[in-house]
TrEMBL record:
This is Glycosyltransferase family 28 N-terminal domain-containing protein. It holds the Pfam family Glyco_transf_28. Residues 95-257 form the Glycosyltransferase family 28 N-terminal domain. One of its GO terms (molecular function) is hexosyltransferase activity. One of its GO terms (biological process) is carbohydrate metabolic process. It comes from Fusarium oxysporum f. sp. cubense. It comes from the Eukaryota. InterPro entries: Glycosyltransferase_28, GlycoTrans_28_N. Coiled coil: none annotated.
Length: 300
């Protein structure tokens, strides 16, 4: 089953079930749920491409002069004058914490929320997760918002399908379709958690129906674990910072491969292959494009 998630003008497609497309890297799912990633051709070209790809972020690639330079961060120069007293604390922020997973995924974020709520920070923190954790979160003195979803059903599905690619039985039994619909509901709930008042347990609350202005909530910052999926899209839509927190390495690095990738390096440079393994697993987990098209016009 070929997964062609990006436009390509040459080899480099990802293949599943031993179907190799082109001369690029290939992959299939092994018994422990990881994806076998094999780099079997032209390692020097991979290394050159990787260096050029990384250099593009620093403006090192030739032919990118037409791109607009990044805008400098806004700063208040008055605050840095020697005779001006600096403020004792920063502005109070609305921070949405997006969590998809089990109780064990929610628990580490409780002390983070509590610290950010207390002086000298004093921010408004909202933990946005499954409704089954409402009482647990509120018992810790933290605001809660439901993004829907059933963690028990999600965990049962993950036990049956421990890797990136669902089993054939899950496809035949209709479980994949159910999980896709549930994830769509969760992603939509995550967006609502950034812009709505209330706790998300019922119908959406519009700003016009909010009696107390202090109940209004527009996220200034998002903290999220990667499985919540909607984080980057919500942050991009609102033009706000995003901070990812997870117990597994999720940022591309040359030091080691993605935890869900079983590597077969062949003649390729190990550090380059490690870096590319993160990109390949990202291609297999990408689900947000349809939703991104709808969020562009949300609440305009």
């Amino acid at each position: 089953m070929a997964l062609n998630r990006i436009k390509s003008h040459g080899p480099g497609h990802v293949a599943i079930d031993d179907v190799n497309i082109g001369n690029g890297p290939s992959s299939d799912v092994i018994s422990d749920g990881r994806v076998r990633v094999q780099f079997h051709d032209n390692p020097q070209a991979l290394a050159t491409w990787c260096d050029r790809f990384q250099g593009s972020f620093a403006g090192e690639l030739p032919g990118v002069g037409h791109l607009e330079p990044s805008k400098p961060r806004r700063t208040n120069s008055i605050a840095f004058l020697p005779d001006v007293e600096k403020p004792t604390c920063g502005p109070r922020l609305n921070i949405a914490i997006h969590i998809v997973g089990s109780r064990g995924d929610v628990q580490p974020f409780i002390p983070i929320a509590q610290i950010l709520m207390k002086p000298p920070h004093g921010h408004r923190i909202r933990i946005c997760t499954h409704p089954v954790f409402k009482d647990f979160v509120e018992a810790q003195g933290v605001e809660f918002f439901s993004i829907r979803g059933d963690p028990e059903a999600l965990m049962a599905y993950m036990v049956k399908n421990p890797g990136l690619i669902p089993s054939r039985e899950s496809f035949k039994g209709g479980e994949v379709g159910k999980r896709r619909r549930e994830m769509a509901e969760i992603i939509n709930g995550a967006w609502r958690s950034c812009i709505e008042a209330g706790d998300g347990m019922g119908e959406g609350v519009t700003a016009a129906n909010v009696q107390c202005a202090e109940d209004l909530f527009i996220a200034d910052v998002i903290i999220a674990n990667p499985p919540s999926m909607a984080h980057i899209h919500c942050a991009e839509k609102l033009s706000i910072p995003l901070h990812m927190v997870f117990t597994m390495p999720w940022s591309p690095t040359k030091a080691f491969p993605h935890p869900l990738a079983a590597m077969s390096y062949g003649d390729a440079d190990a550090r380059v292959a490690n870096y590319l393994s993160f990109m390949m697993t990202e291609l297999l987990t990408w689900q947000g494009q349809v939703w991104r098209k709808t969020i562009r016009d949300v609440d305009r």
